[in-house]
Amino acid sequence: MPRGGPRASCLDRLLETDRQEYLDRASELPADVARKRSVIRALEWTGETFGHHVRFAEIVLDQISDVPDPKILELGAGHGALSRKLLDWHPTARLTVTDIEPASVAAIADSDVGAHPRATVRQMDATALDAADGEFDLAVFALSFHHLPPAAAARVIAEGTRAADTLLIIDLPRPPAPLHLVRLATMLPWAPLVPFVHDGVISSLRAYSPAALRALAAHAGEDIDIELRGGLFSPQVAVAARR
Ligand SMILES: C[S@@+](CC[C@H](N)C(=O)[O-])C[C@H]1O[C@@H](n2cnc3c(N)ncnc32)[C@H](O)[C@@H]1O
Fold it and tell me: For the Methyltransferase domain, which residue ranges apply (predicted)?
């Protein structure tokens, strides 16, 4: 399925890539690990500077406002800044903070998040969760869903809605194709020079549209409902749950 959804236009279908971001490369060569860490640090810095961590924490807390002592699973945590905010702001929330990348998990485990009494840090693949059915009140996957090709993305929806009552996906919006072209044109000159921009261009080409998210949820399970909001100039938010 195209990232723009089953009925994506011809132009939209051209604005896709199978090229990997630095973050997705499996290489454990020191130079590649260092480049991945630099992208994660840049994400943490931009999230702090432009308020993404605050905004995402507000969305999470809004979603579980009626759960007294919520158990939250963060998938693809990267740097752990979202979990840090949730631990700071919610007096009783328990966080399981995870990522697939061993270096990121180790860095989070070594930080104040790892030392927090209400946090557990673990390596976990969002497509195959090592968790019991309904173990969590909410699972959140922020700025990560576009990393996965459609089959794996549908598995995240199936797994997230199995292990948690609600799966919250916060991701980049996929702009209409003409606007997308303009955005890419402004980013492309910097892509060979700055690893963060390189990954940003690929992320943009791999972002899913609302139609694609609906199709992925339908493929993940007939009993899964998905609600979508935001997009275009704000992050795209998808809330999925089993009936
Ligand atoms: C762009 S970073 C987002 C980091 C952070 N959530 C944020 O909002 O800045 C994407 C993260 O997804 C992780 N990731 C990619 N594939 C994954 C998978 N299958 N399961 C869990 N995490 C994954 C990467 O290791 C990376 O840390």
Answer: 72-162
Task: Give the ligand 1 atom nearest the CA of 56.
Answer: 8
The Å distance, Cα 99 to ligand 1 centre, comes to: 6
pLDDT in tens, 80-122: 999 999 999 999 999 999 999 999 999 999 999 999 999 999 9
Which of 58, 60, 82, 147 best tests ligand 1's pocket when mutated (most atoms within 8 Å of CB)?
147
Q: Domain of 26: which CATH number?
A: 3.40.50.150
Alpha-carbon span 160 to 216, nearest angstrom = 13
Asked if 40 and 108 touch (Cβ cutoff 8 Å), the reply is no
Question: What is the C-alpha to C-alpha distance for residues 155 and 232, in angstroms, rounded to an integer?
Answer: 25
Q: Is residue 1 part of a domain?
A: no
Contact yes or no for 179/238 (Cβ under 8 A): no
203 CA: nearest ligand 1 atom = 1
The overall pTM is greater than 0.90 = yes
Q: Which atom of ligand 1 is nearest to the CA of 53?
A: 8
Give the residues across from 75 on adjacent strands: 141
